[in-house]
Amino acid sequence: MESREIVLKNEKGLHLRPAGKVCDLALRFQSRTEMKIGTGIYNLKSMLSVLSAQVADGTKMEIVCSGPDEREALAAICALLEHLDEN
Description:
Layout: E1 2-7, H1 16-26, E2 32-37, E3 40-43, H2 47-52, E4 60-66, H3 70-82
Antiparallel strand pairs: 1-4, 2-3, 2-4
Helix pairs in contact: 1-3
């Protein structure tokens, strides 16, 4: 299991379009991919789960990946989330 804490920097938060990008990316990996915010755990491979988190700009979260390609998944997902304003 690999994990990393990040802070979302996107003034509109994790709305439909960026949530779709995150889900599409997570689905490319075999590993289980989750986002933890407070006591909530959200499946990054599920659009409904990601949107239900209602992530706003400045939200601190932990990205957790476990599986055969966990390191690659963690690096790719964190890179996307950390640079959403640029996409």
